[in-house]
Write a structure and sequence with these properties.
Distance between the termini: 78 Å
Number of strands: 3
Shape: globular
Structural class: mainly alpha
Number of helices: 12
Strand content: under 5%
Length: 319
């Protein structure tokens, strides 16, 4: 009884969490600040450039680039959800975050992460139709279906993030209030920071992962199985190379995103693996948003040409 009263007392005065992040490296905080500042600025610039190209260049007004523009907008939001707080902690050493702000960051992180899963599966389905059903592609992947697929992706993310955030808000939190991460992914530390029964939340997290994350992953996987089979059936080497080039950029992004997520969430919960998980989580929270524009720009001929033409027009206007 006394222990329960003590927990209630702790919960009543606890108004913030402490994000431990990379605080164990005090000598390189400024270096980390500069590194992640460059990454953040590059993420903003690269993804904004993709959006501008997709909107302004006429021959990029196709389903594939419509989806790519949405992905770039999502990556801007994703980075802005996590990196500003990281930069603040590196520069000022401010690692505290209010409980409400933590819930908001958790909601946005979960929302954008779930949406990205569906958006990547939509892009995989688009490539499947383009390669496996080229004669029917224009009819099947029309403007209405594109809008419906993108809308479904954004709405699905809202559903899962709302469910988990609401359930988290019903829990009581007490000391210790430390989250061993650089952002508010409380789900991994929920047993340590909550003095309530967390089994229902953990069960909901597992069910949500199965219901909302597994289907888009399976759709992405099956799409690329059919794509690879179709490419292998092409007799000419040039034809196979051309077909693979239309989806290689997206396949690289999908592999990086899902590969890093699986490493983080499928590894066993262990104190010895915590630092390793933090490093791997940087791949899908920080690295993926910054490399997406590079991958699509370097490996996509149409994007390279559009970027080159826009640069020429800009120089012509300046002179």
């Amino acid at each position: 009884m006394a222990n329960r009263e003590q927990q209630k007392s702790n919960n009543s005065v606890m108004s913030e969490f402490i994000l431990l992040g990379f605080g164990g490296l005090p000598r390189v905080q400024i270096l980390l600040f500069l590194l992640f500042l460059v990454i953040y600025l590059a993420t903003m610039a690269g993804n904004l450039l993709i959006i501008v190209l997709v909107v302004t260049v006429q021959h990029l007004h196709t389903p594939m680039y419509f989806f790519l523009g949405n992905l770039s907008f999502l990556e801007i939001c994703y980075s802005s959800t996590i990196l500003p707080k990281m930069l603040l902690s590196f520069w000022l050493g401010e690692r505290s975050i209010s409980v409400k702000a933590c819930f908001i960051q958790f909601f946005l992180f979960t929302y954008l992460g779930s949406t990205e899963c569906y958006l990547l599966s939509t892009m995989s389905y688009d490539r499947y139709l383009a390669i496996c059903k080229p004669l029917h592609y224009a009819t099947l992947m029309n403007g209405r279906l594109c809008f419906q697929l993108v809308a479904m992706s954004w709405v699905s993310g809202v559903i899962v993030s709302t469910i988990l955030t609401l359930q988290m808000s019903w829990l009581s939190f007490c000391a210790p209030n430390e989250i061993d991460n650089y952002f508010c992914d409380i789900s991994s530390d929920i047993r340590y920071v909550s003095c309530s029964d967390t089994h229902l939340f953990e069960l909901s997290s597992f069910i949500s992962a199965i219901v909302f994350t597994l289907p888009p992953f399976l759709l992405t996987l099956s799409s690329y199985v059919f794509i690879i089979v179709s490419i292998l059936r092409i007799s000419s080497t040039i034809g196979r190379r051309k077909a693979f080039s239309t989806c290689s950029s997206h396949l690289t992004v999908v592999s990086l995103y899902y590969g890093s997520i699986m490493l983080v969430y499928m590894l066993p919960r262990s104190q010895n693996l915590r630092e390793m998980k933090k490093v791997f989580s940087l791949f899908y929270t920080v690295l993926t948003p910054v490399v997406n524009p590079l991958i699509y720009s370097l490996r996509n001929k149409e994007v390279r040409e559009a970027r080159r033409n826009c640069l020429k027009r800009f120089i012509r206007c300046m002179t």
